[in-house]
């Protein structure tokens, strides 16, 4: 019997993964708080678009609203629950789905930030698995419509990295990786925390800058000023990660040591980092923007406190200065509160 899968948060990432798995015949239930989105999916299916024609399809799906989650009790228990909500909603989302898990069922945090400890506190460490989605650039562009804005991954760039909190590779981590391989490249990792912090660094370099400035990813990284801010954000976060003892992976394809050297004035390192940025820009669509930039455009709360705010907080704990990350948090919050409009001027002082 196939595993019963629940996707808690069927937005950009959850919709992309859940829709792809449903398209391949898996037993998937999509759970989301946006009524128009749920209604559209049930009536018309979920439209998935990518950068190539073969990625594009309309998938019939089972979608339910938050108010109907209790209906899960009428069927088989949930074997795998993917939490794909915003990080500030992790605790209640985990508590909600926990009661519908099978005895050996578990929760996978498929989110930005570092939420495994929150999930474990609610569901139990033995029921918690982490999963990083690296450079997937999905966007919920409207009810029932998810757009993927960068090419699919490959063996050179693994998109999904599945790991256990204790660092051992288990059968269930391999199972989740095999499942996600239907959506994109995937692997099980013994370095969950290093992978998590490395992804946090990438988000910290990109998301808040797009949210504060209104820039797309391509424009943000092409602009000399915002590129420089991005690199300084990353260098601070790398130093914090090192202080925490994490084994960092490459940061968007760049070795952590090289990125720090580029910020510290090594001209050769800076030339190589700039060349890598330029190559990445070519792979993005003109409209691609990270999740926080999408949230700001939609008038939603951002995850800035749980990305750059977390980097700054851990910097304070470890004695690593993070003035650029702290300044970006304040800039994003000003835009989020409506005190200023999103503009490159908002970060001109950083």
Tag the structure with descriptive keywords:
single chain, about 350 residues, alpha/beta, Rossmann fold, N-(1-d-carboxylethyl)-l-norvaline Dehydrogenase, domain 2, 2 domains, eight-stranded mixed sheet, four-stranded mixed sheet, about 45% helix
Task: Walk me through what this model shows.
With about 350 residues, this protein is α/β, with parallel strands linked by helices. The protein folds into two domains: about 5-190, NAD(P)-binding Rossmann-like Domain (Rossmann fold, 3-Layer(aba) Sandwich), CATH 3.40.50.720; about 195-345, N-(1-d-carboxylethyl)-l-norvaline Dehydrogenase, domain 2. It is about 45% helix and about 15% strand. It has helices at about 10-25, 35-45, 90-100, 115-125, 170-180, 190-215, 215-220, 225-245, 255-265, 265-285, 290-295, 310-320, 325-335, and strands at about 5-10, 25-30, 45-50, 55-60, 60-65, 80-85, 100-110, 130-135, 140, 145-150, 160-165, 185-190. Helix 4 links the parallel strand 7 and strand 8 (about 130-135). Helix 3 packs parallel to helix 4 and helix 6 (about 190-215) packs antiparallel against helix 8. The longest helix is centred in the middle third of the chain and has 22 residues, at about 190-215. The radius of gyration is 19 Å and the shape is globular. The model has no long low-confidence stretch (mean pLDDT about 95).
Q: Would you tell me the structural class of the helices and strands?
A: alpha/beta
Distance between the termini: 55 Å
Query: H/E order of the elements?
Result: EHEHEEEEHEHEEEEHEHHHHHHHH
Helical coverage, percent range: 40-55%
Write down the domain tally: 2
Named CATH architecture of the largest domain: 3-Layer(aba) Sandwich
Instruction: Give unreliable regions as ranges.
Output: none
Please tally the β strands and state the result.
12
Radius of gyration: 19 Å
Widest sheet, order of strands = 5-2-1-6-7-8-11-12
Question: CATH homologous superfamily of the largest domain - what is it?
Answer: NAD(P)-binding Rossmann-like Domain
Major sheet, described briefly? 8 strands, mixed
């Amino acid at each position: 019997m196939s595993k019963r899968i629940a996707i808690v948060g069927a937005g950009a990432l959850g919709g992309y993964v859940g829709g792809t798995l449903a398209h391949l015949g898996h037993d998937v239930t999509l759970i989301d708080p946006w009524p128009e989105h749920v209604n559209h999916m049930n009536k018309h299916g979920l439209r998935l678009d990518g950068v190539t024609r073969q990625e594009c399809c309309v998938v019939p799906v089972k979608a339910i609203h938050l108010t109907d989650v209790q209906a899960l009790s009428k069927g088989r228990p949930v074997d795998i629950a993917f939490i794909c909500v915003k990080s500030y909603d992790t605790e209640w989302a985990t508590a909600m789905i926990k009661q519908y898990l099978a005895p050996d069922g578990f929760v996978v945090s498929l989110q930005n930030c570092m939420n495994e400890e929150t999930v474990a506190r609610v569901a139990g460490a033995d029921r918690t698995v982490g999963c990083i989605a690296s450079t997937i650039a999905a966007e919920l562009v409207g009810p029932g419509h998810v757009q993927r804005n960068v090419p699919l991954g490959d063996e050179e760039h693994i998109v999904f990295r599945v790991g256990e909190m204790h660092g051992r590779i288990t059968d269930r981590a391999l199972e989740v990786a095999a499942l996600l391989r239907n959506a994109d490249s995937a692997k099980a990792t013994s370095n969950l925390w290093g992978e998590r912090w490395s992804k946090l660094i990438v988000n910290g370099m990109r998301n808040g800058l797009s949210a504060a400035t209104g820039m797309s990813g391509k424009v943000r990284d092409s602009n000399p000023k915002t590129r420089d801010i991005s690199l300084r954000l990353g260098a601070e976060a790398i130093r914090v990660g090192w202080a925490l003892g994490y084994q960092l992976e490459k940061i968007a394809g760049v070795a952590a040591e090289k990125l720090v050297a580029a910020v510290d004035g090594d001209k050769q390192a800076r030339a190589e980092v700039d060349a890598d940025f330029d190559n990445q820009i070519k792979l993005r669509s003109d409209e691609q923007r990270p999740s926080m930039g999408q949230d700001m455009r939609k008038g939603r709360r951002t995850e800035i406190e749980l990305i750059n705010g977390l980097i700054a907080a851990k910097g304070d704990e470890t004695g690593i200065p993070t003035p650029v990350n702290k300044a970006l948090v304040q800039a994003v919050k000003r835009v989020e509160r409506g005190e200023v409009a999103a503009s490159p001027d908002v970060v001109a002082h950083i």
